[in-house]
Each structure stands twice: as C-alpha cells, then as structure tokens.
C-alpha cells in the first residue's frame, strides 16, 4: 500500500476530476457563477487586507477561537492563508488544486481541534464581510444578487469538502485505534496461551522433585499402552517406596526427608531411558513406567537405582515391586499398580532393599 504521506488529500479521499465536477453540479455551481465571481476579483483584491483584518477581529472576539489560535506567529500565518483563500474564492478556477487546498484546510482544522461549529461560524462571518464589501461597491442590483448567490454556493461547496476531511480523518483515527486494540488483544492472547501452557506443564509436575505427578502418569500411561498394544510390545512397571520414611522425617526433620525424595528422583533420572516415565506416585512412593521392557530389564534398572541411592544414603533402604505385561495382551495401569504394590509389601517384609518381581 502507498504511504499516506506520498498521496495528496485528493488521492487519499479518492476525489477525482469527475467527482469535483459532480460536486460542483450538486452545489448548483456553473460557469456563469464562476464568471461572476471572477469579475469582482479586482474589487476584492483592492480590499483584501482590510477584509482579513476585519475577519480576524471578529474571530478573536470568540474566546474558543482565540485560545486555538494561541500566538502572534500563528495569527500571522493564518492571516496569510486567509488572504490567499479570499483571492482563490474569486479566481474563477475551482479545479483539483482549489479542492486540494480546501481539503488541506479541513485537515488542519481537524488537527488543531477546530470543531465544525467554530468552522461554520467563521465561514459565516467571512461571508457577511464579503457581502458587505460587495453591497458597498456594486451598483447593478441584479448582478450583485447573482454574485452573492454564486459566493454563497461556493462557500457551501467548500464547506462540504472541509467536513469530508473531518469525517475521513476521524475514520482514520478510529481505524488506527481499532488496529491498536486488535494488536493488544492478539498480544494478550499469545501471553494467555503461553501462560496456560506453562500452567498445564506445572500441573503435571511434582513440585518437590520436578518429575511427573500421578495425574500426568495416568495420562501418559493410556497413550503408552495404546501404542504398545498396537506394536505388540512388552511393558513394565517399577513401584517402590522408602522404608520407614516416617521415621526419617521424625528423626532428621522434614527437610532431610525432602532431600531424600529429591535424591531418589535424581537416581531414577540417571538410570532410566528416554522413553521411560518416572513419577512420584505420592508421599514416599515412586513409579516408573518402562515401555518395551520386560520384568528382567526392569529389575536391572531397579537394581541400578538402589545401588546409586545406597551410595548417597547407605542407611536407608527401598522396597521394590515389579510387574510386567504384554507383549500380546496388556493389563490396565491400575491392575499393574495393584500387583506391584503387593510385591512391594512382600519386599518390605524381607527388610533391606529388596526387589520382588
Ligand atoms: N519430608 C517429606 N515427607 C513426606 C512428604 N510426603 C509425605 N511425607 C511423609 O512420608 C511419610 C510416609 O509414611 P508412611 O506412609 O507411614 O511410610 P513409611 O514411614 O515409609 O513406612 P513404610 O512404608 O511401612 O516403610 C509420612 O510421614 C508423610 O508425612 C514430603 O513431600 N516430604
């Protein structure tokens, strides 16, 4: 898209020569009106300075306008522009250059905050001053009447152009505001979905050890079991807890208990494969799901975990139950946990770190 600043207002507002023609017709302005206005150009030209002075005396008497004009430099610039506008009104040339200048005036008024009511009041006082000048100097009553009518129509024509720029500029502002709001809404959406993903991730993790909690394990188990059944592959579950953990807590304190739980999850991490799923099942109970592993390979993994845990905490022991299923039919996760739990209690009865398969 072409930059706005590279387009004239005529282009921006899509006002073609045909559109100008149609607008002149709507204002009932014709060549004869143009001629009438042009005929009084010498008269107006001779008095333009005093017309401008009178116009600004009337304008500055209105507080709202005086505030908007603000300072002497601005007033002088405005006087220069008004001087030119008055001469343009009587130029007899109401073409694209004329129209573009009117649109620009509208844009400037909108930008500095001149409301339509103030613009209309200004145009009205300019018209009265010009009418007075014509009244005082023109002798032919009929020509005077027609010239005033032409001027009136032309001022209406100009006013529609100025108002169109007001409206178009307001629409642009609205569109910009809408775009900003949409961008903000999009950025919020991205933030919310990022945060939701983070929260979902957190909801699956045990906060102490950082491994999966039971909920996440159950979700993963259903996916795993479906794929293992399809592939006719074996599946094992290691289930264990820390012996006399309550006593560890009681004797050394809760923090020490926490540290032991963290050491265990670290030992698990070190000895499992990428595809295995470790989980803190609850309290001092842990679970590891091992896809594509039979009980024998699961036992080897459990032995390695026990050995590395014993290196750090030789005085504590783990009781382990292992169950496997498949490769043909697979048990449900709950059935596996039920069996592994029983095995774990059998192991506990034997005392010391024991594994029952
Ligand atoms: N430090 C700590 N302790 C926990 C946490 N979660 C559970 N516990 C404690 O773990 C202990 C588990 O005790 P029990 O279920 O009696 O198990 P146990 O003492 O290991 O007894 P056995 O299983 O028969 O060997 C309880 O005292 C719980 O308070 C935790 O996050 N941190």
TrEMBL record:
**Native species:** Amphritea atlantica
Q: Which molecular function terms from Gene Ontology are attached?
A: diguanylate cyclase activity; heme binding; oxygen binding
Q: Which NCBIfam families match?
A: GGDEF
Q: What is the top-level taxon of the source organism? A: Bacteria
Its signal peptide is none
Protein name stated in the entry: Diguanylate cyclase DosC
Catalytic activity, reaction form: 2 GTP = 3',3'-c-di-GMP + 2 diphosphate
Its cofactor is: Mg(2+)
List the Pfam families.
Answer: GGDEF, Protoglobin
EC numbers on record: 2.7.7.65
Where in the numbering of this chain does the GGDEF domain appear? 233-357
């Amino acid at each position: 898209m072409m930059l706005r600043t590279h387009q004239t207002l005529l282009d921006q507002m899509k006002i073609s020569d045909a559109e100008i023609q149609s607008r002149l017709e709507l204002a009932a302005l014709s060549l004869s009106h143009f001629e009438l206005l042009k005929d009084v150009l010498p008269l107006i030209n001779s008095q333009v300075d005093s017309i401008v002075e009178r116009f600004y005396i009337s304008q500055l008497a209105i507080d709202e306008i005086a505030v908007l004009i603000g300072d002497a430099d601005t007033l002088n610039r405005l006087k220069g522009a008004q001087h030119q506008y008055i001469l343009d009104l009587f130029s007899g040339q109401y073409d694209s250059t004329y129209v573009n200048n009117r649109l620009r005036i509208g844009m400037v008024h909108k930008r500095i905050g001149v409301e339509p009511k103030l613009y209309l009041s200004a145009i009205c006082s300019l018209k009265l001053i010009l009418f007075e000048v014509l009244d005082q100097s023109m002798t032919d009553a009929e020509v005077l009447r027609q010239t005033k009518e032409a001027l009136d129509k032309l001022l209406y024509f100009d006013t529609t152009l100025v108002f169109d720029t007001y409206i178009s500029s307001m629409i642009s502002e609205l569109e910009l505001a809408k775009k900003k709001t949409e961008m903000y809404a999009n950025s919020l959406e991205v933030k919310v979905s990022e945060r939701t993903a983070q929260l979902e991730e957190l909801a699956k993790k045990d906060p102490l050890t950082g491994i999966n909690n039971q909920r996440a394990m159950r979700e993963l188990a259903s996916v795993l079991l479906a794929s293992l059944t399809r592939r006719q592959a074996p599946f094992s579950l290691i289930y264990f807890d820390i012996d006399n953990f309550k006593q560890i807590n009681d004797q050394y304190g809760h923090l020490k208990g926490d540290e032991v739980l963290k050491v265990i999850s670290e030992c698990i991490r070190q000895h499992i494969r990428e595809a295995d799923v470790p989980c803190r099942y609850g309290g001092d109970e842990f679970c590891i799901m091992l896809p594509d592993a039979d009980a024998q390979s699961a036992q080897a993994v459990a032995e390695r975990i026990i050995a590395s845990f014993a290196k750090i905490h030789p005085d504590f022991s783990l009781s382990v139950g292992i169950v496997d299923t498949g490769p043909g039919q697979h048990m449900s996760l709950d059935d596996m946990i039920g069996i592994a739990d029983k095995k774990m209690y059998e192991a506990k009865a034997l005392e010391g770190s024991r594994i029952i398969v």
